[in-house]
Amino acid sequence: MSDSSPGGSAAVPPRGGPLRGGPLWGGRLRGGRLRAVFKKHAIDVAAILVSCFCALLLAGSAESTGRIQGDETFWALLLGFAGSLSLWWRRSNTLAVAFFLTALSVLTETIAFAGLATLYTLVVRRRTRAALLIVVLNTATGVVYSLRRPDVELPLLAELVLNAALLTAAIAVAVAVRSRYELVESLRLRAEQAEDHARLRADRLRALERERIAREMHDSIAHRISLVSLHAGALQLRRDLTPDETAQAAATIRKSAHEALEELRAILGVLRAGDDDSGLRPQPDLTHLDDLLAEARAAGVRVRTDNRLNGTPVSPALGRTVYRLVQEGLTNAGKHNPATTPVHLLLEPTPDGELHVHLSNPLLSPPAGRDGQSGVPGAHAGLLGLTERVGLAGGRLRHGVRASPDAGLTFDLEAWLPWPKT
Q1: How many CA atoms lie within 13 A of 301 on its CB side?
Q2: Mean pLDDT estimate for the chain
Q3: Which of 46, 56, 67, 329 has its CA 20 to 30 A from that of 30?
Q4: CA-CA distance, 23 to 334, in Å (whole number)?
Q5: C-beta atoms surrounding 273 within 10 Å
Q6: Cα separation of 179 and 6, whole Å?
Q7: How far apart are CA 143 and CA 93, in angstroms?
Q8: Contact yes or no for 33/4 (Cβ under 8 A)
Q9: How far is CA 217 from CA 2, 127, 318, in A?
């Protein structure tokens, strides 16, 4: 009878780019729409069957009391079934069905349930004036029918009071259901607004991270291009250079140009916004990692380092990304864990030619997040920025809570970054 209602694991992720994903909104919407249509039709069929059953009961009761006799019972049942079948159209033509049932109520009482169901639909659909009109007409037709075929067991006044009570109950239930629908719709709108706000915030954080990367690389590329220009100018002016000196200068130019191209390749796709030049300064990279670890230890964070790179050179762009990963992991560990819990840092090459960075710190209590993902409290702005940075570098990032038999609950931050050997 009712109307339709309104509307981690730390395992290595798959190759091919950063972890991204989202719900299959198209499939969900289609599936939800089909379920809603099926639910509507099922409710309509149930309402018709219940109405037919009530028509049988009312016709039998009227015949047993002598209110109707003989062929009148057949016609009463026929009208009751016709009124019940009209409930199929009560959603699309609610007012027409209501008037049809009101007209039938002058002839028979077997359409009582169908009339109440239609009145319920009118109230749920906010057809207040039409509902009041139907109530008045139903009361009037009830008086006419009671005068035409008086009930031998109930006086006229008692019958009118019973009719009014049934109408009031139907209206009360409809108002309660409509209030619930409005509450659900309000909560749905608020959830959509919250999702939009979160999406806009994530987009803004990604844009800020791209701007930061562009600013970090500005001085590095400018420095290398300056070296190329300087050595090329020296070759142009110094005509007295020996072949060995010329070859050495050319090698320097080649190396600087190669490194500048590597930096430029790393910055492709990064958008640089704003005119504030306050951030145009040399940024720390992997060569400054020891200083970062020393600062963390001085702040009370216990760090155990397992560096398996064995002095293998790392490009400046990759080094800056690794530095930011370690910096963010140590910042989270310092904010959300006591000094007694150690942080384990692992740097190692992988057989696939990638650089694996892994930070892990124990959690003394279960995380508050859902599904074991990023349960550490906080705004997660740094993690969003890291996801964007690692994705732009062609790597993959994984962060979340992991349970292990040895360390218990740990929060792990892992990245796999492309590592072109120099």
Answers
A1: 27
A2: 75
A3: 46
A4: 34
A5: 10
A6: 12
A7: 26
A8: no
A9: 62, 64, 11
Whole-number Cα distances in Å, 408 to 24, 26, 337, 343 = 34, 39, 14, 14
Which one, of 82, 161, 75, 167, lies nearest residue 117 by Cα?
Answer: 167
Whether the per-residue pLDDT at 54 is higher than 80: the answer is: yes
Q: Is the pLDDT of residue 291 over 80?
A: yes
* Token pair 């009961």: residue: 57
Token pair listed for 39: 């639910």
Of residues 176, 169, 177, 156, the one with CA closest to residue 113: 169
Tokens of 420: 């072109």
Percent of the chain's residues with pLDDT above 70: 74
> What would the pLDDT profile of 313-364 be if each residue is shown by its tens digit?
888 778 888 888 888 888 777 666 655 578 899 999 888 888 999 998 887 6
Q: Looking at the predicted structure, is the pLDDT value of residue 272 above 50? A: no
Alpha helix stretches (DSSP H) within 346-406: 381-392
Strands 343-349 vs 303-307: parallel, antiparallel or unpaired: parallel
| Helices assigned H by DSSP within 105-155 | 112-124, 128-148
Task: Count Cβ atoms within 10 A of the Cβ of residue 123 and give its class: 0-12 exposed, 13-18 middle, 19 or more buried.
Answer: buried
Contact 231, 246 (CB under 8 A): no
SS3 assignment, position 157: helix
Local structure of residue 288 (DSSP, 8 states) = G
Torsion angle, alpha carbons of 123, 127, 132, 135, to 10:
-50
Task: Tokens 């020296």: give the residue.
Answer: 234
Tell me how far CA of residue 392 lies from CA of 183, 347, 375, 416, in angstroms. 43, 20, 25, 12
The pLDDT-based confidence of 416 (bands split at 50, 70, 90) is very high
Q: Distance between CA 416 and CA 290 in Å, rounded?
A: 21
Classified as helix, coil or strand, 28 is helix
CA distance 334 to 297: 10
**SS3 letters across 280-322:** CCCCCCHHHHHHHHHHHHHCCCCEEEEECCCCCCCCHHHHHHH
Residue 223 φ/ψ region, left for φ over 0, alpha for ψ in the -120 to 50 degree band, beta for the rest: alpha
Residues comprising the chain, all counted: 422
- How is 49-107 classified by DSSP, letter by letter? HHHHHHHHHHHHHHHHTTSS-THHHHHHHHHHHHHHHGGGGTTTTHHHHHHHHHHHTTT
